[in-house]
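User: Modeling request: complex.
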Amino acid sequence: MSDQTEKRPEVGPTQCVGPDYRTESQKPVATVSTEIEYDNVITLPQTPQLIALLTMIRDRNTDRADFIFYSNRIIRLLVEEGLNHLPIVEQTVTTPVGRTYAGLQFQGKICGVSIMRAGESMEQGLRDCCRSVRIGKILIQRDEETSMPKLFYDKLPEDIADRWVLLLDPMFATGGSAIMAVDVLKSRGVPEERILFLNLIASPQGIKNFATQFPKLRVVTAFVDQGLDEKNYIIPGLGDFGDRYYTM
Amino acid sequence: MNSGMGLSPIIPDHRDGDDTIAKRAHYSPPWADVSIIGVAGSSGSGKTTLSHAIVNKLNLPWVVIMSMDSFYKPLDPESSKKAFRNEYDFDAPEAIDFDELVSCLRDLKAGKRTQIPNYSFEKHARLENSTVIYSPHVLILEGIFALHDPRVLDLMDMRIYCEADADTCLSRRIIRDVRDRGRDVEGCIKQWFAFVKPNFENYVQPQKNVADIIVPRGIENRVAMSMVTQYIERQLLEKSTRHRAALKSLERGYDSEPLSERVLVLQQTPQLRGMNTIIQDIDTSSEDFVFYFDRLSCLLLELALNNAQFKEHVVETPQGHAYQGLTGKGEVSAVVVLRGGATFEAGLRRIIPDCRTGRVLIQSDMRTGEPELHYLKLPQNINEHDTVLLLDAQMSSGGSALMAVQVLVDHGVPQNRIVFVTYSAGRVGVHRLTKVFPEVTVVVGSMVPDFEERWVEKRYFRC
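Assistant: Request completed. Predicted assembly structure:
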């Protein structure tokens, strides 16, 4: 791009993004999601619009109102993608103009489970797509003595074993608490293959940890970042999602 | 008589080479083919009355009467003083700014909007504000010298000359000037003998020679009136037939050629098909219909926005890392094609809450099936916006989509900045639109059989 004056930082793979009918030179260059080799991970298409939304919420100067608005837009896209993996049956209907439409209908019941507190920020996006959806909650905190994640609280639908679960947590770093959350779900009778883990930004390490432990569980993410720093924060990441959404 | 057929198809003279006629299939919107009717005659001969009578008799939307009085030249201080002393010759062709008139008429013939000056008889000057008008179906130009300038005559489809007895003319003129134009009787009579009468003999009367019809006794002349209106009606019908034939000819190749690469159809994922099943099912409740339509329209608009303009933008995250991202470039605005496009507004507000939104009302004429532009309100400087989303719920024949895009192009929006968004479309419509406007991006929720009647807006608005 001719008006590009800023220095391009080295933060993962870059490519020209934009619709196919534009030539490479017409498309701006941006960092895109890091390639990963596991096929149980679904990354949203790296469209310019998605990159722009992520840019907005990564920017430390974005205020809370914008942070909430733009992260909600991404969350809705994540939920829409997640719902694609539910089981279906064919269903033909008649349209108001008398044409038949060979469509399909979703089978099976769903519920959301948010990992508190940041995961709760994704509930609105889920409700935007699925009205009156049941939403359970799990609170996992780091134990002061062992510095390992510890389950503090959970409240889940009673029939969760019969449901598909959309597990919600926006930042997928090492996956420590998510692994614990999945263990909780499994202990309640939810099979791995009926869990969809929805997050905005994932790290390759977290994805690897998950793929090894839960090979049948599907991860839906908007973007796989480059890696983790020594404190296990995602690089480049976006800071503490819960703080930016709720309190900052 | 000039039938209007001889005029070359009108395409606005372009500022940039983007949408030259050579590059695209030809489509001339119906309003780019305005019929101009000139009504000339002596002052007080009943031109205005006749014009209004024609309008009433035609009983059509989109008929404009343009008075040549608007085109009096602005007066310099010297002439202005004369004018206030009733010594300025307003009844000579020199008093009229024919250049301005010709340029306005040419704009209208080209289907473009134009600005009509406002002339104040009280001040003998042009007012600051001008009147903006869009090209109508029929334009009646009335004025003493409506048939004077050969350039104007060339643009006309029909030329009428009104004839009236001189005494009648003088008395009508006195009444009008005193009542409407703030003059006194003495001044009027002075003007009559100094200017009006000699000018009549020198300039007005000779226009008879170029007239197609000479109408004596004004509106009392019913035979002449019905001749005029019948002629106009026939001409409009011919135009409408031509327009529909032109639309038809754009269909060629729709079933053999692949769709343009600028046609983007929403990926038919299980989720999307599931939503479509609910939306298309006649038995779905209204609550569900609106909920799922709004949800789907968000996805459609997100897809549309990928065709907006972006630029590179490096940001710093709270931990101090740099991220090379993108940010939207320029303004994204929307134009809703009423009524169908309004079904997208809830979705649009979820994605761009403060999106500037223009509106056009295009309706198909019940008799001819030809789309007609009834209402237009666009954001200011829409020509400077980097992306304009043009929203309509359905596209069947593509007639109203073509018309809506043409309206934007006429308002200076380059084709490649327009993203047409629709819930469903048929191949014929999409093919027509992209043939005529190859650089317009078309975003479609799903492809359906051709020529489907509009039902989405009925379901959404429940009437």
